[in-house]
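Input record, target 12 of the design panel.
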């Protein structure tokens, strides 16, 4: 019971933290930054939780709170590319899945395009990667991840993304209107 209480406390603290974090401020943070580390700790705890605890976590957070984890997921996948780290790419993909827990197919497909592109560039098997990420979520989102990893027609441009090389490393930006 102690572990259940600890996890509930974690979920409550996470909900407050995410509620107090402004989306626009997070977009402006340099990559990587201290906020990324805190978000990573949240996703790591989510990934280490039991399926029941992960369900509790997802149910406790509102869409705006989960959207911050989607921003982190994008940033973490980008760091995965910069460091050639499959682990960071997987963590970012799980963050993206958490953010899109309430399935909105159009925005989900666009969000999944960047990790897919990165996986291909790194030589990571997209089927294995997306199946592994699907193991951390359930229902429609898990099935959507599995289907997406099996696609062969995913490109950045079709979803409005572009890859930009910067002195700090590659980054991915959505094009206006894309």
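The sequence produced for target 12 reads:
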């Amino acid at each position: 019971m102690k572990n259940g209480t600890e996890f509930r406390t974690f979920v409550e603290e996470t909900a407050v933290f995410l509620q107090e974090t402004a989306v626009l401020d997070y977009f402006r943070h340099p990559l990587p930054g201290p906020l990324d580390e805190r978000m990573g700790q949240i996703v790591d705890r989510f990934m280490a939780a039991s399926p029941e605890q992960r369900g509790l976590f997802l149910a406790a957070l509102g869409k705006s709170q989960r959207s911050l984890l989607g921003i982190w997921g994008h940033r973490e996948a980008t760091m995965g590319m910069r460091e050639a780290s499959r682990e960071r790419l997987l963590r970012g993909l799980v963050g993206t899945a958490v953010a899109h827990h309430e399935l909105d197919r159009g925005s989900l497909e666009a969000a999944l395009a960047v990790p897919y592109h990165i996986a291909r560039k790194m030589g990571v098997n997209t089927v294995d990667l997306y199946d592994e990420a699907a193991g951390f979520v359930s229902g429609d989102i898990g099935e959507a991840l599995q289907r997406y990893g099996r696609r062969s027609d995913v490109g950045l441009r079709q979803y409005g993304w572009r890859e930009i090389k910067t002195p700090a490393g590659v980054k991915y930006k959505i094009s206006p209107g894309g």
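Residues 40 and 117 are 21 Å apart (CA to CA).
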